[in-house]
Design brief:
By secondary structure, the protein is α+β, with helices and mostly antiparallel strands. It has 13 helices and 13 strands. The strands form 2 sheets. Strands 6-13-12-8-9-10-11-7 form an 8-stranded mixed sheet. Strand 10, helix 12 and strand 11 form a beta-alpha-beta unit.
Length: about 350
């Protein structure tokens, strides 16, 4: 199977354990078709999701066909995303900072389930539209994406805040709490039982969630390391030549040369200089200040309506999205040239 990077960011194992089953089950219930195969790598609180390429393409083509067969589909999908975004953000404001019981937490789970399908739909629906169709629906898609853009960030903030409360209450590191699966976390809230700290520490260091048609497998240790090496292609020497060039999708045209800064988490970054090239898995609203200073932007993941693409257009900065391996193959301090007109970024010298 061939996998492509779907998203990346600061999400814990606990949060990611919701995504895997939902990508199949929730999407299938909502649309009639879902995403069947995915791999999520979680490393010290940061994660990257890879979707099986053919499966993802089939889902995106399926959505494009729904748009063509139902004139109201886009309006209803975008309206549903905004509706569910408002609902979950309202609930998170209500629950944030509180010591919750299992029943309260299950309200969050239900709201999250309702949000996932329209979010994934809006993210993927434009991919295989014609230029004419894209122009017709772009404003609706863009408006919905912007409205919902901070939901996943606020979700992780909520989960992390709740973990901190439980950490003090149970005298257990919040990092370990966030290294439980959703099933284990429910048991922890209900009965106070959790996996051993040794197991949770191993998961925090590196763990992999594999989804196959709604069934989930959790890997740690050597198994997880082997899977990470395979999915990232780190054993392939051809990617490390001095003439390293990556292709991506141009989110905004132009050429720029600058110094690579690989940023996984923008919080606390104070040494990012004007003109640096921001290289990251995927941008989110908390990247805005760095994006304003950047000479150009390169991401591993993202589509035509991703956060990086929308902001780059507003800032009029050269931007390549969907390079898949930029954060793996480039290093801090590399001099690179972004040629978004050709859809490439290459290492210089």
């Amino acid at each position: 199977m061939e996998y492509v990077k779907y998203w990346a960011g600061k999400w814990s194992l606990l949060t990611c354990s919701y995504f895997v089953a939902e990508y199949t089950n929730v999407l299938k219930k909502y649309f009639g078709q879902g995403l069947n195969d995915q791999i999520i790598i979680i490393k010290e609180g940061h994660s990257s999701c890879f979707q099986e390429k053919k499966d993802l393409i089939q889902f995106q083509i399926f959505l494009a066909k729904k748009i063509r067969s139902d004139q109201r589909f886009v309006q209803e999908l975008c309206g549903q995303l905004k509706k569910e975004s408002q609902k979950i953000k309202t609930l998170l404001r209500k629950l944030l900072g509180k010591d919750l019981c299992l029943v309260d937490y299950q309200k969050y789970e239900a709201s999250f389930d309702s949000y996932v399908a329209p979010h994934v739909g809006v993210k993927n629906a434009p991919t295989f539209l014609t230029d004419e169709e894209s122009k017709k629906y772009f404003h609706q898609f863009k408006e919905a994406r912007i409205y919902a853009e901070d939901v996943y960030t606020k979700t992780e903030e909520f989960i992390s805040s709740f973990a901190e409360i439980l950490s003090k209450k149970k005298n257990v590191s919040s990092q370990l709490i966030l290294s439980m699966t959703k099933e284990e976390f429910r048991i922890f809230l209900d009965k106070g039982k959790m996996p051993s700290q040794k197991i949770l520490k191993q998961r925090f260091t590196l763990s992999v969630l594999k989804g196959c048609r709604g069934k989930v497998m959790l890997q740690t240790g050597r198994q997880a390391q082997k899977q990470e090496n395979t999915i990232l292609g780190v054993t392939s020497s051809k990617f490390f030549s001095g003439n390293l060039t990556l292709r991506g999708k141009a989110a905004y045209p132009g050429k720029v040369i600058g110094r690579v800064r690989i940023i996984v988490n923008p919080e606390g970054v104070t040494d990012f200089k004007d003109g640096d090239i921001l290289v990251t898995g995927m941008t989110r609203p908390n990247f805005i200040q760095l994006m304003k200073k950047a000479g150009g932007i390169v991401t591993d993941a993202g589509g035509v309506l991703c956060h990086a693409a929308l902001v780059a257009r507003e800032l009029k900065k050269p931007c390549l999205i969907g390079t898949e391996k930029a954060t793996t193959l480039f290093k801090d301090g590399d001099n690179v040239e972004i040629d978004a007109d050709k859809g490439i970024v290459k290492k210089l010298g």
